[in-house]
Amino acid sequence: MFLDPAELAQNIPRIEEIERASQRFVTQCLVDFRYQARDIFAGESDLQADIGEDITREALDAVGVSRIPIRLFGKMDYKRARYLFHPSYSIRQALFVDSKAEKTSNVARVQTSQTSMRIRQVRAGAAIDEPGTLPTVSTNGGLPFLTTTIFVKYVYEETNSGNNLKKIRIACVPNGMLQAEYNPTPQDTIWRAGPNAPTLGEEFRTRLSFRLLRQKAAWRVQDIAVDPEEEFVWVE
Fold first, then answer.
1. In b/e form, how buried is each residue of 169-205, taking b as 16+ CB within 10 angstroms?
2. Buried b vs exposed e over 222-235: b needs ≥16 C-beta within 10 Å?
3. What's the pTM?
4. Which residues pair with 143 in a beta bridge?
5. Where exactly are the structural domains of the chain?
6. CA-to-CA distance for 210 and 222, rounded, in angstroms?
7. Angle at the Cα of 3 (from 172 to 171), degrees rounded to 5?
8. How far apart are CA 106 and CA 217, in angstroms?
9. d(Cα 25, Cα 63) in Å, to the nearest integer?
10. Is the pLDDT assigned to residue 200 strictly greater than 70?
């Protein structure tokens, strides 16, 4: 009845289809919640990152998923083992969604524990090939789950009256089985150098470039305006 996620390495279009459906789900949840998100951002006094985490959980929980009663582990704000149903197949998915809140909108900071891709990039003139530590397919409770990772970026500005949420950006990072399509070499990449300082022995991090990811597949980066006069339009 269920697809074996490990066999999807031979079916790249199906992985893309599953990730596109997941991107639509998360995006629609935030589209529905965008005005509440704007008001929460303006009214809360917590750290902006904490506010973003709360908004993401509330938005996704308001819609809900076909949950599988298995606990997932990882450094992500929202983790759900779920069923994903398609007219032609069903699959078990480990859905990971993480929140970022920053004043700039061009990148998102990513840890190796937040992606199943290898991070291939050029840094300080040297080629880097760092493995992500999320598995492409995880086994939980004896069952295989396809890993899907999505980032929600809250772009804001600080004002005298509080935080002004400017837009919400949703980015679906490819599963590691799509490495050859999205990041085959350090030169052909979706990553930018991370904020860590190797000379200080800091843990490796990278930055996901929304521009580079969008060049590979426009649908993987969606922008949601919080202005009521701006209607959301899905970018294909």
1. bbbbbbbbbbbeebbeebeebbbbebeeeeeeeeeeb
2. bbbbbeeeeebeee
3. 0.94
4. 140
5. 5-225
6. 10
7. 0
8. 16
9. 9
10. no
pLDDT single digits (tens) 24-35: 999 999 999 999
**What backbone phi and psi angles, to 5 degrees, belong to 17?**
-65, -45
Cα–Cα dist 53/33, whole Å: 13
Residue 169 bridge partners (DSSP): 153, 223
Amino acid at 3: L
The yes/no answer on whether domain 5-225 falls in CATH 3.40.600.20 is yes
- Determine the Cα–Cα distance for residues 206 and 110; give it in Å rounded to an integer: 5
Short-list 171, 165, 38, 154, CA closest to 100:
154
Model confidence over 101-140: pLDDT tens digits?
A: 988 779 999 999 999 999 999 998 999 999 999 999 999 9
DSSP label at residue 204:
P
Please report where in the chains the tokens 């949420």 appear, as a residue. 165
Per-residue pLDDT at 231 exceeds 80: yes
Cα–Cα dist 79/91, whole Å? 16
DSSP E strand stretches across 133-178: 137-140, 143-159, 162-173
